Each structure stands twice: as C-alpha cells, then as structure tokens.
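Fig. S4 source data, part A: sequence.
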Amino acid sequence: MILYFNLLYKIIMQTSYIIIWVVVVFVLFLIGKYNGLVRFRNTRDQSFADIDVQLKQRFNLIPNLVSTVEWYATHERETLEEVTRARTSFLWAGNDVNGKIAADNMLAGALKSIFAVAESYPDLKANENFIELQKELSDIENKIAASRRFFNSTTQEYNTYVQVFPNNVLAWFFGFKEADMYEIENEKERENIKVKF
C-alpha cells in the first residue's frame, strides 16, 4: 500500500511539474506576442510621426507661399482661402492621424490650384522668392512621399501581424485593431503637384 502511495505521489509531482512548465511556456508565449503587437504599433506610430514632421514643415512653408502669390493674384481669394483652410484643419487635427491625412489631401488639391494660378502670372513665376519656395516645397514633397511609403510599409507589417493566427485572437483580446494605410481619397489629388522652375 505504501508503495502504491509513493507511486501515486511521484505521478502527481511529475504531472504538477509538467503543468507548471506548460503554464510558464504559455505565459511567456503570450508576453512575447503582446510585446510584438506593441512593437509593431509603436513602429507604425513612429513612422507617422516622421510624416507629421514633414507635413508641419510643409504647412509652415504655406503662409510664405500664400503671401507671395497673394501679392500678385489678389483676385484669387478662393484658392488662397482653400490653402488656409487646409492648414487650419491640419493644426486642429492634433494627434488624429486620419484628420491629418484628410488635411494633407485637402492641401494637395489646394497646392495644385496655387500652381495653376502661378501659371497665369509670368511675373510671379519669375519671382525669386516664389522660385525658392517652390524648390523648398519640392524637396519637402519628396521627403513626404518617402515617409508615406515607409508609413504604409510599417502599417502593412502591423496589419499582417494583427491578422495572422494566433495573433489575431490576442490582438482582439488586447484591443489591437487593424490600421488604415495612408491613401489619397480623391482621384484628382493622385496627380503629382507640378512644381516648375
């Protein structure tokens, strides 16, 4: 009988060790997956912060551009007001990624209008201040395009990580949701801004 109890005790102890190891491995697995979700989300957030810096530089350049164009084209009020509205929308968006994307899309359309206005004024196109602003804007546009590509790449990686099994279960449990890509909503805005020198 004692032999029977000793054998039963050994089986219970071994089973307990196995259960403890399984629980420890499972907890470590959960921690690793959760940390992966956080890492991908933070990388995406950082990549948008890079876009945000470029957008702020562009929006800070806009008042100078508007002032230069305004001096030449005083009757083009609607175009200049559209640029101002876009800049205001961006500033009011705060930390709202989708609001900033919408303001950026609005500004892209407004900038096309500004450069269309500039085509009508040969003196404006020849103005050194306007030419310098165009160069700065062109440089910023290139940086924004590169930042958007990186943002969309990190968003795609994040979304893939959130969608695959078993991450999708953990993402749902911890409240991680798929994120939007940086897309231009209006087909007209997909056209490149023409910056002529």
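Fig. S4 source data, part B ends here. Helices lie at 2-72, 77-92, 97-119, 122-126, 128-163, 167-174.
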